[in-house]
Design goal:
By secondary structure, this protein is an all-beta fold. It has 1 helix and 23 strands. It has a single domain, classed as TolB, C-terminal domain (Neuraminidase), CATH 2.120.10.30. Helices cover about 0% and strands about 45% of the residues. The strands form 6 sheets. Strands 12, 13, 14, 15 and 16 form a 5-stranded antiparallel β-sheet that branches. The protein has a 4-stranded antiparallel β-sheet with strand order 1-23-22-21, with no helix packed on it. The protein starts with a helix and ends with a strand.
């Protein structure tokens, strides 16, 4: 999983919540020996996550010898994740490796990270696609976002609640918006009809000379993300940066323990008022690989 995190290149300071508050953190029951990450919320009632696809005998499904990585959704019930099912994707799309997803609040668009299957420049590069839902078919008509240059990787989409801004991770190089480290967080204006503005690097208040990953934009315009910059508790730690009245982000600060640990912590998401949320972690005491943890503020 560490290799996957490197290739596709966050707990707590909830919305309006002091970092001195206490929190209860719990490993959720759906975790097992396989990784669970790529977390996103849909209107506080559903959660999206990424894991391996299993057959009826709980064996890994494979394509060309590799496990199928895809996205699932579940209902949130008192912190538990219930009624889990695959997010239905049109088989004709041939999307066998999806590392993360974000659904618009109106349920009309699904943004996904997937591999570059039609370009030989770099088979390790990733791209972001957006699809629409059709009854009886599932999510279909996926289109690569027009600003995705196949020479670079684009991953970890997070759509704002109003659907007008998409945040993502990239190693985009060149010009004013060049990536500062191994991967940076960018934003882009969503204009509709598969048209977008130009990607904008969030700058040195957010990004570092290390890797930034898994952005999540909360309802109060606080950005949460993971970074392996120096000064952390472990490898990847969760940070937050608040958007100010000018639309720019303030200097990112590391979230305290027990959200961050001495291991990898990432994929922070929180509900609309910051009273509960989830994150992924590879901390000691987990059930397997990357586990999902639930938190509430006390």
């Amino acid at each position: 999983m560490a290799k996957l995190l490197t290739s596709i290149i966050i707990l707590i300071s909830g919305i309006g919540v002091s970092q001195t508050e206490k929190f209860t953190v719990k490993n959720v029951s759906i975790n097992n020996e396989y990784p669970h990450f790529g977390l996103m919320l849909v209107n506080d009632s559903k959660i999206i996550f990424t894991s391996y696809l299993l057959d009826k005998k709980d064996r890994l499904k494979r394509f060309q010898g590799n496990p199928l990585l895809t996205v699932f959704e579940g209902d949130i019930e008192n912190g538990a994740i219930q009624n889990i099912k695959n997010i239905e994707i049109d088989p004709a799309e041939k999307l066998n490796y999806i590392t993360s997803a974000s659904m618009s609040s109106n349920g009309k668009q699904l943004y996904i990270t997937t591999t570059l299957t039609d370009n030989a420049i770099d088979e390790d590069n990733f791209q972001i696609k957006v699809g629409e839902h059709k009854n009886g078919v599932g999510w279909t008509n996926f289109k690569t976002l027009p600003f995705c240059n196949p020479k670079y990787s684009y991953a970890h989409p997070s759509i704002s609640k109003d659907g007008k801004t998409l945040y993502f991770t990239s190693n985009l190089r060149g010009g004013k918006e060049t990536t500062k480290g191994g991967s940076d967080i960018f934003k882009v204006a969503v204009l509709g009809d598969n048209t977008f503005g130009e990607p904008v690097n969030l700058g040195s208040q957010v990004n570092s000379y290390s890797k930034e990953m898994f952005p999540f934009i909360a309802d109060d315009n606080t950005l949460y993300f993971a970074s392996n910059r120096p000064g952390g508790f472990g490898n990847f730690d969760i940070y937050k940066s608040k958007m100010n009245t000018h639309g720019t982000f303030e200097k990112a600060v590391k979230l305290p323990k027990p959200i961050n640990s001495n291991q990898d912590d990432f994929c922070f998401i929180t509900n609309s008022n910051g009273t509960f949320g989830y994150f992924a972690s590879k901390r000691d005491g987990g059930k397997g690989d990357d586990d999902i943890y639930f938190f509430v503020s006390e």
